[in-house]
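pls design
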């Protein structure tokens, strides 16, 4: 096992009715900016619950943060934060609203020339305006991690940043919010969380028995609850297991002491930036082919995954590893997710070389757990995924 230092300061309030506790968690006399997305919270009652809980606070609002939080929209919110001297941010939404809020938290205290530098500087962010979240869509784990991904339409970029200053102070996880999530987003949430676990697990054996079993148990739980949650998002038992699995998939715990890959995400972000494909779907397009392409270096973990998550018992190590890849593709398809780029755009020719060019320009010469996946390899994986 590798050495590690682990700290996760985010307080979690989990369960029915927890939104009421907002008032006791946010410091009295805070001037709060409540941030949300395109309006789902106004249709499903979450907006009312939050406003009621915050009745005794000064609350300003900023709605309209789009899926794949857009830089230019966030700059409008930043203006309000500065003009109104906001001192506490509250994200009410999914990964996009939470990531946008993290950016604003950092941008509010940023001293550089332009806040876009937060995305390009590659410096860990150590301080930000305090912020909390009310999660409305289980998927990204952003509610309990310190990462964020911001999109800039003008330049078709989608870049990540983060750091120890970017953990939410607290997050409210009420599984009842899942009731109103459309099928497409439920499928996205399951696929995104599942891939988060794979990115931290599908590398090479390092003797981290507990981390492996944590990872496998999250994947098993997602596989087990997926049919129930897709069939009936009001099933509280399934919803609560789904929600906590998504948080645990990317709150840092399972990645301690083990190598991480993340190349599927790095390539996937480019597909979202270029074609607007939902984040989770880009991962489903690429994951299987990433594992096929890197079969030799990943086959031990692929076989272990096939055995423990999918109960594959027959055949050689290679047979099991291949079965694990097939099972993964089938799982995504069972959620109604198409796994070829050409299912999403007719304009796919040249995507591989375009992404390779972008990676080269950014100096991303070696991705993956061995830092050996070159831009030309990314090109081939994307071409396999047309
Ligand atoms: O905008 P509204 O109207 O609220 O609708 C949203 C949005 O259209 C809707 N929705 C959310 N909660 C709902 C609901 N609809 C009905 N009922 C509810 N309770 O769902 C749509 C998608 O929301 P979004 O926040 O975009 O989804 P998700 O949580 O999947 O977040 C995706 C973003 O997170 C980034 C992705 O790249 C993408 O930009 N990621 C962030 C990560 C992180 N910070 O750690 C890691 C991930 O790998 C990922 O990259
Ligand atoms: Zn993801």
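designed seq:
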């Amino acid at each position: 096992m590798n050495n590690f230092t682990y700290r996760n300061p985010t307080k979690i309030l989990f369960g029915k009715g927890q939104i009421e506790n907002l008032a006791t968690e946010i410091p009295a006399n805070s001037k709060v900016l409540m941030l949300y997305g395109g309006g789902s919270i106004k249709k499903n009652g979450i907006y009312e619950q939050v406003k009621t809980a915050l009745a005794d606070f000064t609350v300003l609002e900023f709605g309209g943060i789009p899926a794949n939080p857009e830089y230019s929209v966030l700059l409008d919110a930043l203006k309000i934060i500065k003009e109104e001297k906001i001192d506490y941010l509250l994200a009410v939404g999914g990964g996009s609203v939470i990531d946008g809020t993290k950016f604003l938290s950092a941008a509010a205290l940023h001293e550089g020339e332009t806040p876009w530098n937060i995305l390009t500087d590659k410096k860990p962010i150590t301080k930000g305006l305090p912020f909390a979240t009310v999660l409305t869509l289980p998927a990204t784990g952003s509610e309990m991690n310190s990462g964020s991904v911001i999109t800039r339409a003008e330049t078709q970029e989608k870049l990540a940043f983060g750091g120890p200053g970017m953990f939410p102070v607290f997050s409210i996880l009420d599984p009842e919010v899942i009731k109103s999530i459309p099928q497409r987003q439920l499928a996205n949430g399951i696929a995104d969380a599942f891939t988060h676990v794979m990115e931290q697990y599908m590398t090479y054996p390092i003797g981290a028995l507990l981390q492996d079993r944590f990872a496998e148990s999250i994947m098993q739980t997602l596989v087990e609850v997926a049919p129930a949650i897709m069939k009936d998002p009001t099933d509280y038992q399934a919803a609560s297991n789904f929600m906590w699995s998504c948080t645990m998939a990317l709150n840092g715990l399972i990645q301690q002491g083990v190598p991480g890959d993340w190349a599927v995400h790095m390539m996937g972000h480019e597909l979202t930036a270029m074609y607007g494909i939902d984040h989770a779907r880009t991962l489903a397009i690429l994951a299987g082919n990433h594992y096929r392409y890197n079969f030799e270096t990943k086959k031990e973990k692929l076989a272990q995954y096939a055995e423990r998550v999918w109960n594959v018992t027959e055949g050689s190590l290679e047979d099991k590893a291949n079965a694990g890849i097939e099972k993964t593709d089938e799982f995504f398809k069972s959620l109604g997710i198409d796994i070829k780029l050409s299912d999403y755009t007719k304009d796919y020719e040249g995507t591989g070389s375009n992404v390779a060019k972008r990676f080269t320009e950014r100096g991303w010469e070696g991705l993956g757990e061995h830092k050996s996946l070159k831009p030309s390899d990314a090109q081939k994986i994307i071409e396999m995924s047309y």
